[in-house]
Amino acid sequence: TYSNESDWSETAQFTMDSIPSVTVEDITNTSDIYAGIPISIQTVYSDNNGSSDLDRLYLKIHNPSADTDIEYYITPTGSNQSGEYPTPVSGSEYISAITYDTTYNSPTTNDITATWDITLGWDWTQGSSLTYGIKATDKGGAGSEYTNTSTTYKYENRLTFTGDLSVKDSQNNNISDSI
Questions:
Q1: Minimal CB count within 10 Å: which of 1, 105, 153, 168?
Q2: How far, in Å, CA of 139 to CA of 143, rounded?
Q3: Strands 33-34 and 153-156
């Protein structure tokens, strides 16, 4: 806050709109992605003007092998949220389920912690160099740039069976195969 005196007013106050911040350390529980298997990613978004100044909280899964990234955002409500559906930006056709929970003022009064519960379907392009990224915008229109994980992950959409397969036919004879 900046105060100044002038001829036309006694005191003027200005509050600077801080740009929201995110760091790579704010993205946790990242992992490889397997079609049909749920993952839960935790992210933290910060604004020096307080958590109530945050307007949109983004998550992007970047797959260099695919034509489309998966990107969603949360619009915070001012209180904790649970089991809500985020707004899609791109790649929603590759998601079979997605919800989020938010916790306000966590870990500090400037922060919102989001837990993203995501299950990818089977149709996204398989890749081995995926990164997770986050960014935020605030109610004043300021926004951070995407911060991405330096570690890369893979997305698998094929099933692999290994081991012995054994069944019995109608005469109770064993039928088996090793793969």
A1: 1
A2: 9
A3: parallel
